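Bumping with the actual sequence this time:
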Amino acid sequence: MIIPTIDRRVKMVRIAFAIEEDRGLESPIAYHFGRCRYYMFVDVEDSEIKGVRVMENPFFGSHISGAVPQFIADQGARVVIAGGMGPRAMNMLRSLGVEPITGATGRVKDVLRDYLAGRLTSGGPCREPCGPM
């Protein structure tokens, strides 16, 4: 199933990625959205990267329900891509106007390319707790 998303060709969009290591676009996607060490924010316009920023997860090592989705929305992201995400986080992101995409693996640059080409599919929510703790 291809995920319907905003028009990637003409609009400026900020896409957030859950990542474990700060290695720029070579960073591997983190398995768990809320428990990753970093978030990368990539600004894309007309399928071209206009900016990249990495921020530490301010809630790494703690769990405050709803804090991470709000943090992502506060950064202006319209899409967030992660390996896994629980159903509550997905629902909260949607309520904040952020499209959650799960099931991503590999490097940010490859996942971004697939997303922009419309080839990225979502695996849906995982059962909580998601993945390795």
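The tokens above came from a reply further down the thread. Residues 1-6 have pLDDT under 50 and may be disordered.
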